Amino acid sequence: MNSTEKKLEAIAESISMKSYFNPNLRTGKVGISYTRVSTKEQQENNGSLETQTKLIIDFASRTQIDVIENFGGKFDSAKTDGRHEFQRMLSFAKKNKKITYILVSNYDRFSRTGSGASKLSEDLRKDYGIIVKSVTQDFDTSTASGRLQENFMHMLNNFDNVMKSDRTKIHTKEVMEKGFWPYVTPLGYDNLKKNQRACFHEYIITEEGKQLKNAFLWKCEGNMTNSDIILKLQARGVGITDKIFRYIISNPFYAGYITGKLLEGRLIKGKHPALIDLKTYLKANEMLSIASNVGIPKVFRHEEVPLKVFMKDAISGVPLTGYATKSNWYYKTKSTAIPVNIKASNLNPLFVKKLQDYEFDPTLKNDLKNLISKESKIKLNASNVDQKLFKKKLTEKSNELDKIEKKYLLDQINKDLYEKHADRIKAEIEELNQD
């Protein structure tokens, strides 16, 4: 094969390779770094973060990867991939077309979700040409064996995470079975030794706790509704919602017991002081369960007030709500400077009358049909013109790239000139495809 045939073959090969070219895949050595610690204590001590950063900087320097942005540097659990800083880093990497590397000190700093981490890494590599690189586990992920090694590390990290979680659950269950509460201190109590292990916690009843004791007693009497009790507590400085009130009344912690998912609902006599006795606790829960509104779903829609929420006060912009009194329905606003209160039977017909202004006139059917047809044709023609212009520009750029490649293969231009113009044309083609 003579030199001319070789050059022609190279041109043909170049044209053939275009059909397999993925414009989304990136080239170059530009990266971002991601560091993370597992606990707030590690974040405050900062030792682990400094070590991770140093390892990444050293690796980037050796391999000549230009790190243009740093992410993380804070407490961020890797049990799930919904972490805010992690998602921010991924979003930046996908949008910035220069990024080809995400550098981490170890694969467990990237994610500990196992198969989820493997799939995410694979998707980044295939869809964007972004390589997740552990600087201390330098696998060649361009090969099958390298990807296997990376996937194995992800699975191993997930296994380690699950093992730690299981050990923590076993230890926490043992602590709870001894009567110690290992979680957040409930309202009405104060933990005098909150920074120590659960078996050393020392709880006391606070002033809020004394008021909550009254709430149990009021509930037992059955003379006050939940709302009345909550308002009374708020007047005494204990601000709680109806949901929290129900949680407190039904929580056996206040009767001196602990329970939870790990105990499968079993009651264990706690080491903390009881706020009330068991008899009061059971009576309060009995009254809570037989309350007139328990088990009755809230009705959000009433035929009598169809404009509720939809219609708003013209001055404040506050949506109208509805209520009934003496068999009559009304609309009103809540917490507005100028209150609005109007009978539904007056407002509803006014709205129906207003709607008639927007009703379709059947006699104008043909006019409307012609108008829609005319506008559709205009838009369709404009779209066709845009499509033709796009195809024309794309063809021109592809031809221009072909000419540059032919000139280079025929030694009519040098490599530097070829790369300069070829990169520019490829960028223009990519921009056209995105538009």
Please outline the helices and strands.
Layout: H1 3-18, E1 30-37, H2 40-45, H3 47-63, E2 66-75, H4 84-95, E3 101-104, H5 107-110, H6 115-128, E4 131-134, H7 144-177, E5 189-191, E6 203-205, H8 207-221, H9 226-235, H10 242-249, E7 257-258, E8 268-269, H11 278-289, E9 321-325, E10 328-332, E11 341-343, H12 344-355, H13 365-409, H14 415-434
Parallel strand pairs: 1-2, 1-3, 3-4
Antiparallel strand pairs: 5-6, 7-8, 9-10, 10-11
Helix pairs in contact: 1-13, 8-9, 8-11, 13-14
Biggest sheet details: 4 strands, parallel
* Widest β-sheet, arrangement of strands: 2-1-3-4
Beta-strand level of the residues, as a percent range? 5-15%
How many helices? The count is: 14
CATH topology annotation of the largest domain: Rossmann fold
Distance between the termini: 44 Å
The total of beta strands comes to 11
Mean pLDDT score, rounded? 84
* Reported CATH architecture of the largest domain: 3-Layer(aba) Sandwich
Q: In which range does the helix fraction lie?
A: 40-55%
CATH class value of the largest domain? Alpha Beta
Tally of domains: 4
Rg over CA atoms, rounded to whole Å, is 35 Å
Which structural class fits the helix and strand makeup? Answer: alpha/beta
Shape: flat
How would you name the CATH homologous superfamily of the largest domain?
Resolvase, N-terminal catalytic domain
Which spans of ≥5 residues are poorly predicted at pLDDT below 50? none
Order of helices and strands: HEHHEHEHHEHEEHHHEEHEEEHHH
